UniProtKB/TrEMBL annotation:
Residues 4-248 form the Endonuclease/exonuclease/phosphatase domain. The record marks D218 as: Important for catalytic activity. Its cofactor is Mg(2+); Mn(2+). It comes from the Bacteria. It is an enzyme of class 3 (hydrolase). Pfam families: Exo_endo_phos. The keyword Ion transport does not apply. Belongs to the DNA repair enzymes AP/ExoA family. The record marks N149 as: Transition state stabilizer. This is Exodeoxyribonuclease III.
Amino acid sequence: MRIASFNINGVKARLPRLLEWLSETRPTVACLQEIKSQDEGFPFEEFEKIGYQAIWHGQKSFNGVAILADGTKPIETQRTLPGDPEDEHARYLEAEVNGVRIACIYLPNGNPVPGPKFDYKLAWMERLRARMRELWALEVPVAVVGDFNVIPEDKDVWSPTAMASDALMQPESRDAYARLLGDGWTDAIDTLNPRGGVWTYWDYQAGAWQRDHGFRIDHLLLSPELADRMVAAGVDKEYRGREKASDHAPVWVEVRD
């Protein structure tokens, strides 16, 4: 079973690239972030043509998450992150696929620092931790995947100095992420690449892709019941280099059935 995550940066703008990736790599589950589409505009029919069924939580012009499954319908278990009834951002969607609970997240960016957006980011991470503890207590295979907008360590960025003032690298952001791992979750990419140097995002500006000035912010966190089944994890880096690509590359983890 291959569980993948892809910040698509606009599902309609990147639809040809997305359909290419799905057809060529055929993940069992594909979690999408930044679909940037209202619910009624989500192109679910295009995915059905190639054998994927979908659920989605959209929002006009920005945010938005979706879960696609190959040959089966994801069974929705939670829409929106609990803990703040006034939060209307479409950043969280949760479903069950083939006996695995999948949470697809698009964590707030948090810039500029300091400010209300950074405060919102940290509060959202605390709410996420609370939900992940609830999922942990179920004692079932769980994957929490998506764009976390956190660079966990200096080894996860091409230049720590260049990103030092960014919300993605602030001590508070890193501490909040570390607390998730401290609760017993496994960071799949980091576990299999402990020396770092693996990027999932390259900015469109300043030739970042051509110079390989990237960093790792797309993560796959596994509960013990799923981490015990992990056999491989990686980044589909080449898709970042294609025409009209997202600024993120897909990440994935393979687990035994």
